[in-house]
Design brief:
three-stranded antiparallel beta sheet; 49% helix; binds s-citryldethia Coenzyme A
Length: 438
C-alpha cells in the first residue's frame, strides 16, 4: 500500500516551556488549519521520564487528520472542509461516502464507477446467508452486524495494509454495500420474514428500504421523501473526528488488522448507550416519561440528582458545548416528515418539552448540555417504520464511510505506529525480583 508523507500542521515559532523542578523543557506548538493548537509531547517521556494523564482523552489529540472538523463552541461540523448543512441538503450519501474516502466530491464519471461498485457488491456471499440461521431470534442486530462484518474477513482475508492490493474503491464499496444488505437481512431474521434481495436499479437508500420492508405478500412502495430523509440521516452520521468508535477503529487498525475485523470493532464500540446506542436509549427514556404522565420536570430533576444514575439520553457531548448542528438539521427534518406523513407522535411532543425545560435550566446551561445527534434521530427512524433495535444499526450504516476514511488515512500515513499508551501504576508495591538491578 502506498504511504504518504503527510504534512502535520504548522509548527509555531514560539515553543511552550515546561518547568519540572527547575529543569525547563521545550514542547513544540503545532497549529492546525482552523487555528487549533496542540503541544507536541512525542518526546516528553524520553526527555523527562514523565507521561501525561488524560482519562477519556478529553485533552488529547490522538492524531492529525484531514477528514472532518468540529468546532464545539460554535457548533460547526465540516467533512473535508464542506459544511454539514450543505452536504445534508445538496449531496447524496453515496457522494459523501466518496468525499470522505477520497477527499473530494466525485465528478459524474467517478460517481458512476463508485455507484457501479456499490451495486455490484450489494449481494452477500450465499454461504454467509446461512450464518443468520444460527442467531437466536432476539439477538440484537448490532451484535449480528459486528459478527457478520468480522466474518467477512474470512471470505476476504487479504484486506489489510500489508496485502491490500485490491483498489480502495473495491474494498470500501464492498463494505458500504454489503453492510447495508447485512443490516436488512438481520432485521428480516429478527421478524421471521423471508429476506429480500437488493435490486440493481434502486439508489442506496431506496434499496435499503426495499430490502427492509418489501415482502412477497405486501410489496413496499418507495416514497422519495422518505428516501431523501434517510439519505440526510446517513450523511449527517457519516463522520465525526476522533469519537469513541473511530478511535477504536484507529487503535485496532494500527496493529495491521484486516479492515473488516477493524470495522467490526467500531460497530461494537458504537453499540454502547453512551455512544451510538443513545438513539435507542432516547426512545426508551421518552416512553418512560410518557408512561409516567409526561412529567418532564421530574426527569430533569432526576438527571440533575448526583445520587440518581439517570441521565438525559441524547443530551450532552464531549465536544459540542452548544447545539449539535446535526440535531438542528434533524429537528427540522422531524417536523417536516411527520407533517408529510400526517403522524402525531407523542414522543416528539415530550422531546420538545424536555428540550425546552432543560435548555432553560441552570444545571444544563452551566454545563453546556444541549441536544446531540441522538436526540431526534429515533423519532424520524420510527416515523419511517424502522424498529428501535435497528436505530444504532442505522448509525453504523451512516458512520461506515467515516470509519473507512479514518482507517485509510491512518494506514496510508508514513510512520504510523501501533497504538500503545502508557499508564500510572497505582497497585500494591512491587516485590523486587531476585538479582534485579537496584
Ligand atoms: C455520540 O464523540 C462523538 O463525537 C460522539 C458522537 C458521534 O457522532 O460519534 O457525537 C455520537 O456518542 C453522541 C452522545 C450520545 N450519548 C448520549 O446522549 C448519552 C448521554 N450523554 C452523556 O452520557 C454525556 O453527555 C456524554 C457521554 C455524551 C459526554 O460525556 P462527557 O464529555 O464525559 O461529560 P461528563 O460525563 O464528564 O459530564 C460533565 C458534566 C457532569 O456533571 P458534573 O460532574 O460536572 O456535575 O455534565 C453532566 C455530568 O453529570 N452531564 C449530564 C449529561 N451529560 C453530562 N447530566 C445529565 N444528563 C446528561 N446527558
Amino acid at each position: 500500500m502506498k504511504k504518504i508523507d503527510r504534512k502535520f500542521g504548522k509548527k509555531l515559532e514560539v515553543d511552550a516551556k515546561l518547568d519540572i523542578n527547575g529543569h525547563v523543557f521545550t514542547l513544540p506548538v503545532i497549529e492546525g488549519t482552523q487555528g487549533e493548537r496542540g503541544l507536541d509531547i512525542s518526546k516528553l517521556y524520553a526527555e523527562t521520564g514523565y507521561v501525561t494523564i488524560d482519562q477519556g482523552f478529553a485533552n488529547t489529540a490522538a492524531c492529525y487528520s484531514d477528514i472532518s472538523y468540529i468546532d464545539g463552541k460554535k457548533g460547526i461540523l465540516n467533512y473535508r472542509g464542506i459544511p454539514i448543512e450543505e452536504l445534508a441538503e445538496k449531496h447524496s450519501f453515496v457522494e459523501v461516502a466518496y468525499l470522505l474516502v477520497h477527499g473530494q466530491l466525485p465528478n459524474q464519471k467517478k460517481l458512476k464507477k463508485w455507484s457501479g461498485f456499490l451495486t455490484e457488491h450489494s449481494l452477500l456471499h450465499e454461504d454467509m446467508r446461512h450464518f443468520f440461521d444460527g442467531f437466536p431470534r432476539g439477538a440484537h442486530p448490532m451484535h449480528i452486524l459486528s459478527t457478520m462484518i468480522n466474518a467477512l474477513s474470512t471470505f476476504y482475508p487479504n484486506v489489510d495494509q500489508r496485502s491490500l492490493k485490491a483498489d480502495i474503491n473495491e474494498t470500501s464499496t464492498r463494505l458500504i454495500s454489503i453492510v447495508r444488505t447485512l443490516a436488512a437481512f438481520a432485521y428480516k431474521r429478527s421478524v421471521g420474514e423471508p429476506i429480500v434481495y437488493p435490486k440493481h436499479d434502486l439508489s442506496y437508500g431506496a434499496n435499503f428500504l426495499h430490502m427492509m420492508f418489501d415482502s412477497p405478500v405486501k410489496p413496499y412502495k418507495i416514497d422519495q421523501d422518505i428516501v431523501d430523509v434517510l439519505n440526510m440521516l446517513l450523511v449527517i452520521h457519516a463522520d465525526h473526528e476522533q469519537n469513541c468508535s473511530t478511535t477504536a477503529v484507529r487503535v485496532i487498525g494500527s496493529a495491521q488488522v484486516n479492515l473488516y475485523s477493524t470495522i467490526a470493532a467500531g460497530v461494537n464500540a458504537l453499540s454502547g448507550p453512551l455512544h451510538g446506542g443513545a438513539n435507542q436509549a432516547v426512545m426508551k427514556m421518552l416512553r418512560k416519561i410518557n408512561k409516567d404522565g409526561g412529567n418532564v420536570d421530574k426527569y430533569v430533576a432526576k438527571a440533575k440528582d448526583k445520587n440518581d444514575p439517570f441521565r438525559l439520553m441524547g443530551f450532552g457531548h464531549r465536544v459540542y458545548k452548544t447545539y449539535d448542528p446535526r440535531a438542528k438539521i434533524m429537528k427540522a427534518a422531524c417536523h417536516k416528515l411527520l407533517k408529510k406523513l400526517n403522524i402525531k407522535d407523542p414522543l416528539l411532543d415530550t422531546a420538545m418539552k424536555l428540550e425546552e425545560v432543560a435548555l432553560n435550566d441552570e444545571y444544563f446551561k452551566a454545563r453546556n448540555l444541549f441536544p446531540n445527534v441522538d436526540f431526534y434521530s429515533g423519532i424520524i427512524y420510527r416515523a419511517i417504520g424502522i424498529p428501535e433495535n435497528m436505530f444504532t444499526v442505522m448509525f453504523a450504516l451512516g458512520r461506515l464511510p467515516g470509519w473507512i476514511a479514518q482507517w485509510r488515512e491512518m494506514v496510508e500515513t508514513k510512520n504510523t505506529k501501533i497504538a500503545r499508551p502508557r499508564q500510572i501504576y497505582t497497585g500494591v508495591p512491587c516485590k523486587r525480583s531476585e538479582g534485579s538491578a537496584e
